[in-house]
């Protein structure tokens, strides 16, 4: 049997649960986007989907990636730290793209809650990853809790944002249907 880094081995069940949840929710998000795209008269276009839908899938996939990284049979924390730092840095960079897309789209005017859930909280989670990853070799226990918290935060952000998108489309559909009557 392969020896795993002991500090990470204790988190195996956590990352199996979190990673599996992220994978399942990614699949559900594809179903939701397909249903929204199949509408007779779509309420949103590609710009809105890129600004608000795609990041949700990216957050779920980031959680899946973090779970995969921490479930791998690492022998030392250095490699784990490098992989997580790269993941977090990519997430921070991606949030710059999300901000640009949210500001550029014209079909929906984001409110404060949108900026908090679609930008601020994901940016916080992604920024926590490289910071915790850098310190992982010095004091693994608190850093692993920060990494776990970032993963769960991204998971809940994805759940919130997916629900927000679905309820927005449902409400908008009712408004359009009510105008027809």
Brief write-up:
Helices cover 82% and strands 0% of the residues. The chain has six helices and no strands. The mean pLDDT is 89.
Poorly predicted regions are none
Anisotropy-based shape: elongated
How many distinct beta strands? 0
Q: Quick check: average pLDDT?
A: 89
The number of helices is 6
Task: Quickly list its features.
181 residues; elongated; mainly alpha; single chain; 0% strand; 6 helices
Description of the molecule:
- It is a single chain.
- The chain has 181 residues and is an all-alpha fold.
- The protein contains 6 helices and no strands.
Helix and strand layout, with pairings?
Layout: H1 6-9, H2 12-37, H3 46-71, H4 77-104, H5 112-135, H6 140-180
